[in-house]
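Field reference: sequence -> structure
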Amino acid sequence: MKKHFLQKTLALAALSSGLILTACNSGNDTPDASNTPEQSPAVTASAAPEESVAPDTPTPTPEPEEPVYELKEKTTLKDWEITVSKAKFVKSVKQSEYSEFVPDEGNKYLMISVSVTNNGKEEDSFLPSYIFNDDVYAKVYYGDGYEFSMTNLLAYDESLVDKKIQPLSKKKGKIAFEVPDSVAEGEEELVLKIISGEDSITYKLK
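Structure field:
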């Protein structure tokens, strides 16, 4: 009787031990979060922003600078062949033995000596008093764009204003400008521009 009870007790003890071991093993099968390798977050590749390319812009071509001629150089303007030979400041211009032209106080005359040939097929005035269409006229520019117009010395024999010139003929004369003493005595650039319509020639006077 005692032997049977002891066997039964041992069997129960063994069964209990087996259950305990099973429970322990089941707990050990759960993976340890601390030992699990950390997963890196997904990286989304983004395309580099496309660089905007400016359209080809044509570089503007600079307009060619107008040449500036020295005294005694021969030039051509439309049908006229022109040579400016000399420029001189004077206090007065003698008209005859008994009279002279005198500028306003504080001014001088700039007398420019010019020879001109009419290569056109008709008689024409080189410097008419009244300008129409492509008629020729002259201006003097000093320093930073100071502009002076021609002075018509009426009845002055050497003036080229209103002088008619036959085809293939040459005439020498003078163009007068009345300018302040500050221009006559100044050191800045002084140029003569002879103009016909949109065309012109420029002479450096000083």
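Note: The helical segments are 2-28, 181-185.
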